[in-house]
């Protein structure tokens, strides 16, 4: 009889414990499927050419405005000098056209009919054409100057260089990314929660984030937003233009997982966030407080 009593007590305690943990989990959703995320800026040169100077190292920190690397500028400086020469030529032609137009206008004022109306119109049109040519030449100078400036590539924000493979002598191509820069000021946590766990969770709810690489330093956070949709796995069009439908068990309905974005608060100086690392997340619903 005593043995049955002990067994009953142990079973009751276990049931109560399981129920308590279930209630705690229901009120405060928890997941180990979280990641540290950040915006990754692809540093892309605006001009093509060989790299003559690399000012950064792999896994180094840079500040906004720091020089990252330089491209051989000789070709673009030559193009700038050529554009400047054409600009001076256009300025001279404009001055000539203005002088000829002024001379013809002055003659016509002194003696009516000394210059035909057609010639007066042609002189005026020549001035307008010269002005247009000068504006075009100035635009070419501006473009050439920009290309010279673009041979120096600067950091657009504070951040971390990672997976650097750029070396002096390498040929870079305009509009092709060559360096990855992780924006230092953009880190957030993304956790994936079952849809059944998100009932009552709203933006602004408090959360506790534990990084796997800093498990002894939990970080306070708050819910920023909850994803409004995920890609469907069934019904997408296959190679034969028929829908892809995966087999499943009819008696089991698996809950989908939705991404939850969290903003970190009061990060310790000892904690270095790294893109893609693992985090555990516990959300404390406001409605339970």
Entry keywords:
289 residues; alpha+beta; six-stranded antiparallel beta barrel; four-stranded antiparallel beta sheet; 3 helices; 14 strands; 28% strand; transmembrane helix; transmembrane transporter activity
Description:
With 289 residues, this protein is an alpha+beta fold. The protein has helices at residues 2-27, 74-110, 117-150, and strands at residues 30-37, 40-43, 49-54, 61-62, 67-71, 152-154, 159-162, 171-172, 179-183, 188-194, 206-211, 214-226, 257-264, 278-284. It has a six-stranded antiparallel beta barrel with strand order 1-10-13-12-11-14. Strands 2-9-7-4 form a four-stranded antiparallel beta sheet, with no helix packed on it. Helix 2 packs antiparallel against helix 3. The radius of gyration is 35 Å and the shape is elongated. The mean pLDDT is 87.
Task: Let me know the largest β-sheet.
Answer: 6 strands, antiparallel, barrel
What's the number of helices?
3
Instruction: Tell me roughly what share of residues is in helical segments.
Output: 25-40%
Distance between the termini: 44 Å
Task: Calculate Rg over CA atoms.
Answer: 35 Å
> What's the total number of strands?
14
- Classification by helices and strands: alpha+beta
Biggest sheet, strands in spatial order? 1-10-13-12-11-14
SSE sequence, one letter per element: HEEEEEHHEEEEEEEEE
**How much of the sequence is in beta strands?**
25-35%
Mean pLDDT value: 87
Q: What is the approximate shape?
A: elongated
* Low-confidence runs: none
């Amino acid at each position: 009889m005593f043995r049955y009593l002990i067994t009953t007590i142990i079973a009751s305690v276990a049931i109560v414990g399981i129920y308590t943990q279930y209630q705690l989990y229901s009120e405060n959703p928890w997941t180990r499927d979280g990641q540290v995320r950040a915006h990754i800026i692809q540093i892309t040169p605006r001009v093509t050419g060989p790299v003559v100077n690399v000012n950064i190292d792999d896994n180094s920190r840079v500040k906004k405005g720091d020089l990252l690397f330089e491209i051989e500028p000789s070709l673009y400086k030559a193009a700038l000098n050529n554009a400047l020469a054409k600009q001076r030529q256009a300025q001279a032609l404009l001055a000539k056209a203005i002088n000829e137009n002024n001379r013809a206008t002055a003659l016509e004022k002194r003696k009516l009919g000394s210059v035909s109306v057609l010639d007066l119109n042609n002189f005026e049109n020549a001035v307008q054409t010269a002005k247009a040519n000068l504006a075009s030449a100035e635009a070419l100078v501006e473009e050439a100057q920009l290309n010279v400036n673009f041979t120096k590539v600067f950091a657009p924000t504070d951040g971390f260089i990672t997976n650097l493979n750029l070396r002096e002598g390498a040929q870079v191509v305009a509009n092709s990314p060559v360096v990855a820069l992780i924006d230092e000021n953009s880190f957030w946590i993304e956790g994936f929660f079952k849809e059944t766990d998100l009932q009552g969770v709203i933006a602004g709810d408090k959360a506790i984030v534990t990084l796997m690489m800093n498990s002894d330093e939990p970080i306070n956070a708050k819910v920023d937003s909850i994803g409004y949709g995920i890609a469907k796995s069934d019904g997408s069009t296959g190679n034969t233009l028929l829908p892809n439908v995966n087999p499943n068990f009819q008696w089991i309905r698996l809950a989908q997982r939705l991404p939850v974005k969290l903003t970190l608060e009061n990060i310790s100086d000892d904690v270095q966030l790294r893109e893609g690392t693992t985090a555990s997340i516990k959300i404390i619903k406001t409605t339970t407080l």
